[in-house]
Amino acid sequence: MHCTRKIKEDLYWVGAEDRRLALFENIYPIPRGIAYNSYLVKDEKNVLVDTVDYSVGRQFLENIKYVLNEEKLDYLIVNHMEPDHCSLIEELIYKYPEMKIICNNQTIRMIKQFYNFDVDSKVQIVKEGQIFKTGKHEFQFMMAPMVHWPEVMVTYDITDKVLFSADAFGSFGALNGNLFNDDIDIKKQWISEARRYYTNIVGKYGQQVQNLLRKASSLEINMICPLHGVIWRNNLEYIIEKYDKWSKYEAEQKGVLIIYSSVYGNTENVVNTLANYLGEKGIKDIEVYDSSNTDVSYLVAESFRYSNIIIAATTYNLGLFPAIENYLTDIRRQNLQDRTVSIIENSTWVPGIVTKEINKILSEMKNIKILEKTYSIKSSAKDFEYENIKNIGDEVLNSL
Ligand code: FEO
């Protein structure tokens, strides 16, 4: 049974949903599933924009067959060669032997790496700014290297003012029948997963995303069709502004993110007392996460969101608690910048290790301001040490 949608004159969504996959890229939990979007533009020559993951291949092939309705598939535009979008290329070659692949110089190398068919005889190479006509429609190609792989390009349908944006503007989460941004409450139902997708998948490449935003700003765009998540057909400035902020590593809101590890509850006790103090002082935006039971992808996303981060960590095997170390190396890897950080440590044997280790990682990141007040808990906090918590809280308050 086909599962397709006409989303504009000549333009069809032929993607598919996967709610079985537990970990996207075998790393990121996707409790709400994932959508693999693919688009078919019907014209004198029919053109498909990207394919899908192999896991949903059967649905995808049925969708294409239904929309083509016995017509030929003439072209496949490959914007991105990550296998969640390119897995069905070989099947399409066999099913539609006349089909040509439109891609750039970088892409052809990757097709050869992933596949064994005679790639050169099937490929038509395009360059930056080149225009390609299928009849009524004219497509223009723009290179977007490292958003998210080096070969990535985006395709602009000049005729309908549609941007096929590859991974950009995508999100985790299956579509559940609501394909468009205005079908759902974006702020309540969507933006947290779009942020988690962006920060973990593309977060490291802020400069390259800025380059793409600059190119896209010269286009008149009516619709953004990403490879994952909802299709944007209005209020485009909302998601573009988010991308602008995220790719500049600017915090979305002034607020306090507290991330802790606690083996026997003593560090957690200090964290709760500190959060309570900040709340009492009127801070509304406070989020507290236990690093042991929160997947690090959520912590990365929240770190991109908030201006201030408090890290409260226990010593473990004369080093950092592993979940905290994993969190810190991940935000360093994702290039997070321009945040204000406070540090609390807990040790029973040797004080100072945690603070030193956290400082070392943060010093390798750009524009991280580490606040002066610290608190070195000796196993558990005592009432007479409340002043330490108050001092940290007051310094955070002043820095907001
Ligand atoms: Fe959804 Fe970079 O692939």
Give a structural overview.
With 400 residues, the protein is of the alpha/beta class. 34% of the residues lie in helices and 25% in strands. The chain contains 12 helices and 22 strands. The protein has helices at residues 57-68, 83-86, 89-95, 105-114, 186-202, 206-216, 236-248, 266-280, 296-305, 322-333, 353-363, 386-399; strands spanning 5-8, 11-13, 16-18, 23-24, 28-29, 34-36, 39-41, 47-49, 75-77, 100-103, 123-125, 131-133, 138-143, 153-157, 162-164, 223-225, 253-260, 286-290, 306-316, 319-320, 339-347, 368-378. It has a 7-stranded mixed sheet with strand order 1-2-7-8-9-10-11. Helix 1 (57-68) links the parallel strand 8 and strand 9 (75-77). The chain starts with a strand and ends with a helix. Bound molecules: MU-OXO-diiron. Residues 80, 82, 84-85, 148-149, 167, 227-228 line the site of MU-OXO-diiron (FEO).
